Amino acid sequence: MATFSxxxxxxxxxxxxxxxxxxxxxxxKQLSDKIQKIKTDEPIQRLILTYEEDNQQKHQKLLDYIxxxxxxxxxxxxxxxxxxxxxxxxxxxxxxxxxxxxxGKCLEIPDACPGYNDNLMYTWLRGEHYLECEIxxxxxxxxxxxxxNEVWGEDIKLGQEFSTAIIEKAALxxx
Amino acid sequence: MKLNFIKNLASVPEHCYVIRLTRPPKxxxxxxxxxxxxxxSDGVFTPSTADRESTPxxxxxxxxxxxxxxxxxxxxQGTNPNSDKKLxxxxxxxxxxxxxxxxxxxxxxxxxxxxxxxxEESVRNKLPGARGHSxxxxxxxxxxxxxxxxxxxxxxxxxxxxxELAKLASNDCFLLKEGQLLPEKSNKQT
Lengths: 175, 190
Known about the structure:
- By secondary structure, chain A is of the alpha+beta class.
- Chain A contains six helices and five strands.
- Chain B is built from eight helices and eight strands.
- The two termini of chain B are about 30 Å apart.
């Protein structure tokens, strides 16, 4: 299973003294200087920070998008979705995000789009993994996942706890 | 031209292409393409209540050698004069039929078909492009999927087929130009 992890580069820094014993002379010194520079500049930490800031911006964009859909209804435009489905969608996203943030993780911000049947769909894509969460104004929530030959789905009601299987699938899009 | 092979509910020939219109995503002008996910999440291949209740249940499409994209758009304007469904998706009939579903390792071919669906006689004989009306039938409607499958399996298979159609459509799509959509009278004057 393909996962994204920042563990490996940090391990390299921890193993710095070991590398020095393996690579002797001028070459070893140059390598040590490079590793020291990485430690001082903290590029990995900066990278994590950039990801977090980016994620926060995307999160705000998602909320703004849902709010723009709400304004379409309020301003009297003809829509195929209701205020109810937008409220449900916000609630589902908030809950999913909280599950992962309580584990110290970030769930990737999904693409979102309303459908034609008072539904709104969140979708995540990473490589071969595709997950969708379809939320209906009636309070039904349908998860669907596909990857190559694997297809999986589960339906729940709004407010119901997410199953382990749902969290496992969503975890493919968390870091 | 005599088109003897066209009979109501008969299969559309393999070599034909069908079109379906949808809303372009906001970034279409910039990217000039649409991803299958965008199409899938927009529900382009999700049958409406009317589609489900029609006989036989079908998702409306138009055979492109009998209905031009502009003519298809005119039909949409019948219910919504300012319809924003100006993105034309084009799919090969043979590719639609070749989609194979997989449920727990078992393959299911021939789940989708494309058939002629005649519109009411008054419409069919009067409006330009009306004769190209057809429909995608089969697995997009759970009641038409193999009975041996559970309800859950049918739902997953339907969603799988929907995403496969979206994948096909994302490879061949274009936007109707505003100039093409001028009222017919204005078009003749220019």
